[in-house]
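re: ur question from yesterday

yeah so i grabbed the chain u mentioned. its 209 aa long if i counted rite. heres the sequnce exactly as i have it in my notes:
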Amino acid sequence: MKRRILIGLVGFFFVLVIAGRSSAATVLEFTAGTASTLSPLYPGQLVKTPAGGPWNNLVFNWFDPGGTPAAFGTLFLLGAQYFGTPAALSASTPGFLAQSQSTAGGFYTFAAGETLQPNTQYLFYSNASGSLRASSPIDLYPDGAAYFTPSNSSSFVGGSLTDDLNFRISGVVAVPESETYATMVAGLGLTGFWVRRRMQKFGMLVRLR
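ran it thru and got these structure tokens back, copy pasting raw so excuse formatting
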């Protein structure tokens, strides 16, 4: 009986761990409408995350004119519109939240702990230029807005009445930190100890009768 209870507790914990694991999936993507090509520009894009999440292990990409994922330079994640120059983008930029840690294979990768919250507006800006695919007609993505500049030393413009850039954001639904699981293990261990003591006490009472 005691063994069954302890096995049940261990199994319950195992189910919790498995349920908490998630694989990378698309958080948000925009590729609708008629594709249009933008000459090499420094891009920026306003997005609004969907319900669900939150998400971490973030990966972002633009799309080039041929529809292939594209990434160049460093991508900055902001919480406010930015109308400065690409050259001035930094961790000191007003509204700064994070920046990509690597750029390879057409993708920007952020530090694993960087998180996007659901139903929230974010802005992504690149400090390098590239040829990109956008979508027309205007305002196909009502929650978004695109920003552009042709030069590293000129200010971003846009934010309305522009074709939205094609992009994809991927991530993993955030799960409890390892410290949380450690607390759960400790709690289950104490519960198992308590159950065992109770069963031992119950067994002694039965023998006395």
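noticed a couple things. The chain has two domains: 22-173, 178-209. also The radius of gyration is 25 Å.
anyway ttyl
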